[in-house]
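agent> Task received from the user: take the single chain below, predict its 3D structure, and emit structure tokens. No templates, no multimer pairing.
agent> Plan: (1) validate residues, (2) run structure prediction, (3) serialize to tokens, (4) report one or two observations.
agent> Step 1 OK, no nonstandard residues flagged.
tool_call: predict_structure(input=
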Amino acid sequence: MQKNSLWKQDDSILRVLDERENEALVIDCVHPVMPTWIQKDELLGCTQIEESEIWPASNGISREDDIPVDAQRIMRERFTIITGVIPYIMDEGKRSKLIARAAAEHGVCRKTVRHYLCLYLAYQDVTGNRSIIRTCQRVRSREIMCPTSRKGSKRI
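)
tool_result: status=success, residues=156
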């Protein structure tokens, strides 16, 4: 088993982010939530898959150059928010503190930072699941606000 390998299990696709002895740190790419440590044995019944199998339809966009400029800007802003957290994903305590700090520094809620982080970890790409592109196409002028608190939210 190697880092970044993908494993299909029923309706989930798990990405291995790190390993230690008999455990693997995984994130569900279908329903991205914070990574968790599982026993490596749990992956024995899974089928290893290719990277291309996790990407949803991308509206004909195959390269970052094809992504609209406003969507590229948003992707980079979101990535900037999570860059300080990425190296510490294995340490839950430090990760939580850094998520709180990033939220305070960028004027968004912790839930938003966690969401951006999970998308990045699941897809291992700044474009995330490319939902940003669809969002920019649908609502160019509307602000994208923190899902838990609209008061004082910031466009990201």
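agent> Step 4: summary for the user.
The longest helix spans residues 92-106.
agent> Done.
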